[in-house]
């Protein structure tokens, strides 16, 4: 069965990021623009959640204007189910740039796969944005 995007996640449900927190305590405040992600790591987590629930508009909003694609087409048959952040450098509220290395786990048509990426972020006008990344999929 293919999910319809975007998937609604209630504030009291577990966050798709798999933090163990509710969505309202974790990524939801960023996705509904209640507040901006305070760090590059927090933005990475919320962007993973956006991929998991199919929120292409949030992905575009948090992609830096210099590298943002014209459109983002998400595959509703791809189910993102776990994010492992392996390292982060910079990306604090007091820095202008940051880098997050992660592995995202997904399933598509019953087959598991991973996407490993070294993502670069920049803080512009007090907000963090995804710039680009070096990707390796398996």
Account of the protein in words:
Residues 39-133 form the YchJ-like middle NTF2-like domain. It comes from Gordonia soli NBRC 108243. This is YchJ-like middle NTF2-like domain-containing protein. The two termini are 23 Å apart. The protein has a single domain, classed as Nuclear Transport Factor 2, Chain: A, CATH 3.10.450.50. The protein has 138 residues and is α+β, with helices and mostly antiparallel strands. It has a 4-stranded antiparallel beta sheet with strand order 1-2-3-4, covered by helices on one side. It has 3 helices and 4 strands. The model has no long low-confidence stretch (mean pLDDT 93). β2 (97-108) and β3 form a beta hairpin. It has helices spanning 28-31, 40-53, 56-61; strands at 78-90, 97-108, 111-124, 127-137.
Topology of helices and strands:
Layout: H1 28-31, H2 40-53, H3 56-61, E1 78-90, E2 97-108, E3 111-124, E4 127-137
Antiparallel strand pairs: 1-2, 2-3, 3-4
Q: What is the terminal separation in angstroms?
A: 23 Å
| Helical coverage, percent range | 10-25%
- In total, the number of strands is 4
Q: Which radius of gyration do the C-alpha atoms yield? A: 14 Å
Tell me the overall shape: globular
InterPro entries: NTF2-like_dom_sf, YchJ-like_M
Domain YchJ-like middle NTF2-like: 39-133
Pfam family, one: YchJ_M-like
Protein name: YchJ-like middle NTF2-like domain-containing protein
Please describe the structure with a list of short key phrases separated by commas or semicolons.
YchJ-like middle NTF2-like domain-containing protein, Nuclear Transport Factor 2, Chain: A, alpha+beta, NTF2-like_dom_sf, four-stranded antiparallel beta sheet, YchJ-like_M, 138 residues
């Amino acid at each position: 069965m293919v999910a319809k995007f975007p998937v609604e996640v209630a504030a009291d449900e577990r966050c798709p990021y798999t933090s163990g927190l509710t969505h309202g305590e974790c990524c939801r405040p960023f996705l509904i623009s209640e507040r901006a992600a305070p760090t590059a790591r927090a933005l990475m987590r919320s962007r993973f959640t956006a991929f998991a629930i199919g929120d292409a508009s949030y992905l575009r909003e948090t992609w830096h204007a210099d590298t943002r694609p014209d459109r983002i087409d998400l595959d509703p048959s791809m189910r993102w189910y776990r994010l492992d952040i392996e390292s982060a450098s910079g990306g604090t509220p007091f820095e202008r740039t940051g880098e997050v290395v992660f592995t995202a786990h997904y399933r598509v048509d019953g087959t598991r796969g991973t996407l490993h990426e070294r993502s670069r972020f920049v803080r512009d006008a007090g907000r963090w944005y995804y710039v680009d990344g070096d990707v390796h999929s398996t």
